[in-house]
Design a protein that fits this description.
Organism: Akanthomyces muscarius (Entomopathogenic fungus)
Strand content: 35-45%
Shape: globular
Number of helices: 5
Protein name: Glyoxalase-like domain-containing protein
Oligomer: single chain
Low-confidence stretches: none
Radius of gyration: 17 Å
Order of helices and strands: EHEEEEHEEEHEHEEHE
Strand order of the largest sheet: 2-3-4-1-5-8-7-6
Largest sheet: 8 strands, mixed
Number of strands: 12
Length: 237
């Protein structure tokens, strides 16, 4: 049976002050830019930083554009192990994993930016988990960000990578089973592991992040990232 998942490309957090949080991550914490904060489409702006083996995106939108899908509070973007969404959908179906129809996003000039397909069994009103296929000109935005983190010794927090992503779910058993089926033969063995815990609704609970010095990272996190949302917890190990 061929794999379904290559890796978790990135996670996102939606915030009204996403630009401020992004600037603190880059300017204060010294994290490398995966892509700069910019307007992507009508009423949608975002920027992202590298945590080594995972990209963290900050999204700003008022969700008023009729041309864009609703952006929930959290998102998990998956890189498929196949060249086309059709192949990914067929492979996922053999494991009982559902994928919605393709949904394409364009820039204001009408150029295709990416195509995504929601995984409804791993999503909810506050969380989108989806496979995402980027156009060729989007991939270079990430180039070298992981290496830059290593060169900078992990920035001010001394980050070496993400150990674990914790997801909360009101459907604990189903969500845990689907993630296990999805990730059991993932192509990227350095991808963060996924832990599922019980919650009242679907969402991201936090990241367990490897650092060079736990005590120093905890202290600097409070000092350097005062606007980082409490809704996504960072645990340092």
């Amino acid at each position: 049976m061929p794999p379904v998942l290559n890796t978790i490309d990135h996670i996102f957090v939606r915030a009204g002050n996403a630009d401020t949080i992004y600037n603190e991550l880059v300017d204060n914490a010294g994290l490398p830019v995966a892509w700069p904060f910019r307007s992507v489409a009508d009423d949608l702006a975002s920027g992202a930083v590298s945590l080594g083996n995972l990209i963290l995106e900050l999204v700003q939108t008022s969700n008023t554009s009729a041309s864009l899908p609703f952006v929930p509070e959290y998102g998990v973007a998956l890189t498929p192990a196949h060249d086309t969404m059709a192949e990914s959908r067929a492979c996922a179906a053999t494991r009982g994993i559902e994928m919605d129809a393709d949904d394409s996003v364009y820039d204001p000039s009408g150029n295709l930016l990416w195509t995504r397909a929601l995984v409804p069994q791993l999503s909810g009103s506050r969380l989108d988990t989806f496979f995402c296929d980027y156009t060729a000109d989007q991939w270079p935005l990430r180039a070298g960000s992981r290496e830059k983190l290593e060169t900078s010794n992990g920035g001010a927090l001394g980050i070496t990578g993400v150990e674990r992503m914790t997801v909360r779910s009101a459907r604990l058993q189903q969500t845990a089973e689907k993630w296990q089926l999805m990730a059991m033969d993932r192509e990227d063995k350095d991808m963060p592991t996924v832990q599922v815990v019980a919650g009242e609704e679907e969402g991201l609970q936090g990241l367990t992040i490897r650092v060079r010095d736990v005590e120093a990272a905890e202290r600097k996190f409070k000092e350097l990232l005062p606007h980082f949302p409490d809704s996504l917890q960072w645990q340092f190990v």
